[in-house]
Amino acid sequence: MSIWSKLIGTKRTEDKNNTIGNETTPVPYRAHNYAIVDVEVGLKDHKIHDIGALKRDGATFHKTSKEELFIFLNDIDYLCGHNIIHHDAKYLFTDKTCRWTLVDTLYVSPLLFPERPYHRLVKDDKLSSDQMNNPVNDCQKAKDLLLDEMACWNSLPKEKRILFASLLKNQKEFEGFLSMVSAEYIHEGMPELIKRLYTGKICRNADLGTLIEQYPCGLAYALALIDTTDYRSILPGWVLHNYPEVEFIVKLLRHTKCQEGCDYCHTQLDVLHNLKAFFGYESFRTYEGEPLQERAAQAAVKGKSLLAIFPTGGGKSLTFQLPALMAGRSVHGLTVVISPLQSLMKDQIDNLADKSITDAVTINGMLDPITRALSIQRVQDGEASLLYISPEMLRSNTIERILIARHVVRFVIDEAHCFSSWGQDFRVDYLYIGKFIQKYQQKKKCKHPIPVSCFTATAKQKVIQDICDYFKQTLDLNLELFASTASRTNLRYSVLHVESDNDKYLKLRELVAESDCPTIVYVSRTKRTMELAAKLTRDGYKALPFNGKMEADEKNANQDAFMNDQVHIIVATSAFGMGVDKKDVGLVVHYDISDSLENYVQEAGRAGRDPGLSARCYVLYNDNDLDKHFILLNQTKLSISEIQQVWKAVKDLTKHRMKVNCSALEIARQAGWDDSVSDIETRVRTALAALEQSGYLVRGNNVPHVYATGITVKNMDEARERISASVLFGSDETEKAVRIIKSLISQKHIAKAQDSEAESRIDYLADILGLSKREVISVVERMRQEGILADSKDISAYLQDAGDSERKSQMLLERFAKLEQYILNHIPDGTLRISCKQLNENAVNDGINTSKEKDIRTLLYFLTIKGYTHKKEDAAHNMEISRQTDLESTIRHFEKRLEISRFTVEWLYRLASGAEKENAPGKAIQFSVVELLNRIKSNPQSLFGRLDDIQLEDVEEALLYLSKIGALKLDGGFLVLYNAMNIERTKDSKSRYKQDDYRMLNEFYKQKIQQVHIVGEYANLMVRDYRAALQYVQDYFQMDYKKFVAKYFKGDRTNEIQRNLTPQKYNQLFGQLSKRQMDIISDKASRCIVVAAGPGSGKTRVLVHKLASLLLLEDVKHEQLLMLTFSRAAATEFKQRLMGLIGNAAHFVEIKTFHSYCFDLLGRIGNLEDSKNVVAKAAEMICQGEVEPNKIGKTVLVIDEAQDMGTEEHALVKALMANNEEMRVIAVGDDDQNIYEFRGSDSNHMYRLAQENGSTFAEMTENYRSARHPVDFANGFLKNIDNRIKNMPIISMRKEDGWVEVTHHQSKCMYQPLVENLLRHKDKGTSCVLTQTNEEAVILMALLRKQGINSKLIQSMDGLRFWNMMEMRYFLRYIDKRIKTPLITEELWEETKHATFSAYDRSQSLMYVKRCVEQFEQTNKTKYVSDFKEFVFESSAEDFCDISGTDVVVSTIHKAKGREFDDVYMLISDSYAKDAHLMRRYYVGITRAKNRLFIHTNGDCFNHLSTDRYFTDPQQYDMPEEVVLQLSHKDVNLGFFKERKQEVLALRGGDALTYSDFFLYSPSTDKPVAKLSSKMQGTLSEWEKRGYKVKSASARFIVAWKPKDAPKNEPETAVLLVDLMLSL
């Protein structure tokens, strides 16, 4: 069987009369007797609307009656028309047979006019017409075409006429025409005739007999095309649609090499001949003698699918360009090149243009509308043989359309390693390529699969396997492999180990200085390209930066400067050099090592492209370089939880309808992603592609239509006139309107040939006319308004609550109006610098109670996209807002929009209630913008009676506004302001994106991690052993991957390379943890991890290391991580410890108190005073969907001191979990240390979390803090406590025994024996005295001081708010008066410190402020005023109590929680009810002791416990001689201070005061500064009865105060809080 029969797929049947004969059969000729007919049919009702007819003698007919038409045609033989057979005849002869011979001008026109420029009257399958619905005019056109066709036929050589007639006889589309021109035809000898006529144009050995028999029409069209002299001539799309075999026949005749060999195939299909013809080269490039380039090009010409692995600079472009250009010439075909790199496309097209080859075109996102339209036009017109596009472009309708109309001969996929999750750059959007080709082949009815060529520079076995498998599975293609084993011999590699960044730079400078040749320096971050280039230039070595984020112009300019030798050094990220071919690069320096060996080899391979040049490749290596790659990988990685968030967002958006149109940004917002993150749209698209890949959704193309059925003008002239006369069109818009209507009119007839709807999609019109979508929409809407286009109800509105009596949409509108007016009035003429939270705080304080931060963001977003305001926001969400116009006109616009919005909502409610009466509630309300505009204008009560200037844009703006604020949901219409994607959810809303779905991406990221380790190993090997390192690289590319890993990473190292940390970093972070701690940290699967952690078990350490693990090992991005604590002090401690562990990255982790986080959710600035109910309110808002998703879009929540959760905190955690179905919770606490029951805490909430689905409960009972005996004592004491969660006893991990001593006193007073005991035992370590009450603590403090012991008190300062302290107020006010931006500058900060510290240098309470400032500096790299205020407002004075350098600390048990001391002395008096709460408090005190515990008690709680010494002391002790009373607010007469503000403010903490008769005096002025409250006067009298008198007094704190119920503007009073020293 011949190759032909194989290709055609049939066996050749013998021609019975296979004799060459020249018999021709003539056809009778009565051509003078004909008429032309044209029928207008409604696109929707498929009924005849109009008929026109024209006889040869000029007589015309124009009516709608068929019967009258038949009478008019009575004396006619031939009935002619354009597409009459498959269109007009169908409608004319429905109930009677046709007695006329039908002549169709459509089918013969491509046969007779196949050459560019085609016939002037035909465009695609239509007669070009500038009139609408004028069938007589169309008949005239068809008549002109028919006469031209007949003339053309008669001018053909006789043999060609005979050939075409013989092929086309008996074909109904052609027989009428053949009869009309009296065609002659032959019965045999056709193959020989074709060979003779087409000598040198087709393969001489082609099996023509089979083609003649099976595809006569297709063959005729193919021959007509082959005959053209301009290779850019192409057959119209409708021919390819109706005769799909044409492409295949042309390929058989012109592009299939015969085995026998003929002149045509020898020259036209010979790659060497064409290489010289196109590129001027005599021979192909070889690789160490391997003719790889030639073999791959040859395979492509033979139509094979292939995978070619060429080293960088290996000439791969030529390998696909040459076959593409050959196919362009031979079969007028198009090769589609899919590449991810837009800059690469430009380079290749420019390089071809330099060789005078203009067949290449690119269509990509970087083009402006006009260039894009031009490119599309060139592909449509057949001018392009090569089309470069990105994978994303396959989603465009326009691309799909223009490809369907062309003969695509091959898809070339560049960077094919992107298919493989084992490649260094896996891209999910590549996986759509196969689907697209499949869909394309089905639509085109291809007989054979379209071949593909894949190119990559990565020769890794697994990647090759993945690529081959992908094409086998999706398209059933087998790829032939072309791989070069050759390596570059002219490159010399070196790795130089450098210690620091400075050494690195000096080394680079040295290398650049000694080389003096074109140099590429590779760095890993975009920012560094700029810094390094500037530094080199400054040092006299001119360098330019290059990175992917630069503006296109700058990028091109810098690249050109380097290519043209204007500058020798380019500092670039890996984005540079892809496809850049500079032959004389002599030096490549990796300032940062690449992230994979593939990339390293590729990047280093940019050197020495000229084989005669010897080049050097250096890596400047530091062990920390790998960590940078790991951090970068963590930031760019798309984790499973992020895809889950996008899936949840899609489920939310498709709640009511499975199909929606929305933009990437909308999805990101709904997913709770921070929209200030760069490349967010790409991340969303990748997540959608991953979901589509796993079958969760289908992403379609976007299709807003303009229906051409609605054209109401008769012809172009009328359209022109009406557009010019209209006041709606500006001069520039008139021309656009004319172009659009012309395009719509000319496309009106498209329905005839392909039975498709008139092709008039917005994006398509924009693409072909070179306009933006916005321009097209604007003009189309105006033409509707003017009545040139009929108006169609194409918008569906869904109201919030169409049936309810309380109209939510209306309430929403009024709520937003109030807030917007407030915002507009508060933007000054300059710039407003403020955080969103502060703006919301101000609005609430100014009486707009319904204000929410989410609403403010929505409004600012709307005002910015509509150009009313300009907004800039930094990473910490501080904004700069300015107005774009003056206040008056902005307010005028606002009022106008509000009025339109009110009318719209009211009108839609009316329509909705009408729909309800017709029993169609809940349905969408259909309307159009133009209809709404006309309603508003005709509304008599409207405020617009005097405002006749209301425009369509105003209505559109109001609709957009209503949809943005959520008052309506709009669908359809032309409100397309963004790149919307069409998304259809295909799985139900309960399904969840699982680990198994994530497998492919996960595989890729695992690989990326291993790649970094592998490249690091290479660098280390290179320093030690050059030969071994080269062998390592060779093995990497040639060995099976698993064997390679086994060879070079033995034993434990197999695990090491799985982690995205270097082994050194891993040990530093996790090497010192116990197995139990490590188990908790390694748990990545549990949804909830609840850890009941005993005292001293390293709870804080576990949490800090778990945070580090989440960030570094578990792909949790810092913005998705939230840690909640119960005090500002704990939050600060965690931040400090995390910084010590992971450095600056800790700054970005959100560690907040419950209160501060909830204030944040409410968009308020938190303070402890207003914190009542704030947690409950936030939980409620989350449940009602009133919080911005990005505030709660967390994937991991870490809770410290979980036993302290109350009902409100638990409700908040549950609300967060319900909102994020994939959220993980890690809660750590000690149920035995729950000592805050008085404020609602309950460790049962922690237990409940442990009962959640997918929870793990762990106990940490190893105590690393305390010696054995204190631990045994604590375990014994625990038996007094019921309802515990932990079961296991605490185990001391220390070897020492320690000491426990209990002294049981008979005396009520125990101060003295405790102090004596302390003096006896005091040694080097830290000591602490613990009491039950503040009063006890103060008395002990005085006693210790009297004994000369350096001691400090950690006080509970009841009612004292830290931010009210005079020194702190001064600090805050100083900043407030001088600050201009949300950021506190370093100068202002230092100035404030200096001013405050100078003004209060003698105040003893200044130390609290100093410590506060110091802690804030440590945990806040950049200082925002809102962060500082929150820090201060959330803190209490005891948080800043500095106990360092003290011998003894005195504290209440409550305040000592979380601290530890070598020796602990407890004062336990028996005057309290012994409940579980009290027992837990004692337990907290007991477990503070590391070595020794001394208890002084007069109760019996500790009687039966084993101790080292139990001692009963029968002696009675007195109260100490000196007692200190610390006065709080309730101890002084607050009203007394009103008149004495200045005198009080003149005092400082620690100043001595004079006491007399319940008054305190300032010694310097002798004026009274305070008066004791009547309650305190009573207390003092009691003390006096016991013999105590006031000996001295001093000022402790001066604080700001005013009554809670005071009016807002009432000034504050300064209150003096004092210490009174009493003595006997």
Could you characterize the architecture of this molecule?
The protein is an alpha/beta fold and 1624 residues long. It is built from 64 helices and 50 strands. The strands form 11 sheets. Strands 10-11-9-12-13-8-14 form a 7-stranded parallel beta sheet, with helices on both faces. Helix 18 (369-380) packs across helix 33 and helix 28 packs across helix 29. The longest helix is centred in the middle third of the chain and has 31 residues, at 887-917. The model is unreliable at 1-30 and 749-759 (pLDDT under 50).
- Major pleated sheet: 7 strands, parallel
Q: Tally the helices: what do you get?
A: 64
Which stretches of 5+ consecutive residues score pLDDT under 50?
A: 1-30, 749-759
Average pLDDT score:
86
Residues in helices, as a percent range: 40-55%
Order of adjacent strands in the largest pleated sheet: 10-11-9-12-13-8-14
Strand-residue proportion: 15-25%
Cα shape: elongated
Distance between the termini: 127 Å
Structural class: alpha/beta
Number of strands: 50
Backbone CA Rg:
43 Å
SSE topology:
Layout: H1 3-8, E1 34-41, E2 48-55, E3 60-63, H2 66-72, E4 78-81, H3 84-92, E5 101-104, H4 105-112, E6 122-123, E7 126-127, H5 135-155, H6 158-168, H7 172-180, H8 190-197, H9 208-214, H10 216-226, H11 237-242, H12 245-254, H13 263-268, H14 271-279, H15 292-301, E8 306-309, H16 316-331, E9 334-338, H17 342-354, E10 360-363, H18 369-380, E11 386-389, H19 397-404, E12 408-413, H20 431-444, E13 452-456, H21 461-475, E14 480-483, E15 491-497, H22 501-515, E16 519-522, H23 526-538, E17 543-546, H24 552-563, E18 569-572, E19 587-590, H25 597-604, E20 615-621, H26 624-636, H27 640-653, E21 659-663, H28 664-670, H29 680-693, E22 697-700, H30 716-725, H31 731-746, H32 751-754, H33 762-769, H34 773-785, E23 795-799, H35 808-826, E24 832-835, H36 836-845, H37 853-865, E25 869-873, E26 878-883, H38 887-917, E27 925-927, H39 929-938, H40 952-964, E28 968-972, E29 980-985, H41 999-1024, H42 1026-1038, H43 1041-1048, H44 1053-1056, H45 1063-1070, H46 1075-1082, E30 1088-1093, H47 1099-1112, E31 1121-1125, H48 1128-1142, E32 1150-1153, ...
Parallel strand pairs: 1-4, 4-5, 8-13, 8-14, 9-11, 9-12, 10-11, 12-13, 15-20, 16-18, 16-19, 17-18, 19-20, 30-34, 30-35, 31-32, 31-33, 33-34, 36-37, 38-43, 38-44, 39-41, 39-42, 40-41, 42-43
Antiparallel strand pairs: 1-2, 2-3, 6-7, 21-29, 22-29, 23-27, 23-28, 24-26, 25-26, 45-50, 46-47, 46-49, 47-48, 49-50
Helix pairs in contact: 4-5, 6-8, 6-10, 10-12, 14-16, 15-16, 18-33, 20-21, 26-41, 27-28, 27-29, 28-29, 30-31, 31-34, 33-34, 35-38, 38-40, 41-42, 46-47, 47-48, 48-59, 49-50, 50-52, 54-62, 57-58
